[in-house]
What does this fold into?
Amino acid sequence: MKFNWGTGITIFIVLFVVSMSAMVFKASQQNVDLVTEDYYEKELAFQGLKDKEALTKSHFEEQVSYKIEDDKLQLIFPSEVEGEIKGNINFFKPSDANLDQSVDFTSESKVLVYPLDLFSTGMYKLRIEWQNAGNAYYSELTVEL
It folds into this structure.
């Protein structure tokens, strides 16, 4: 068989089409998790969260923090907080939407404790919406478990 320009171009086009088809097939098999299914509605409420976050930063010198001790995650609210704290914590795992968790809480204590065996290892974003003394606050933390 004689190798000429026509044969080379034909081989190139066939290989190009096969590689493009393989890439399209592989891309269609990838799992694409959205941050949230109803992101349009969440976007409309985003300014409210920013207002709550600004209120948190202006009212408290300390912010919500965390500590990991004895296989427990401890969420520590500012020392200036007095009385009952109510709210919701969204444990958001960016790598797998199936591992997201949402927990409602009510506490007189400034420290909330969660056992680490409730969570898989990896990074979580904690989105904490909480109320105290008639005001609504919002805090966001990134935690590596």
Summary: Residues 5-28 form the longest helix (24 residues).
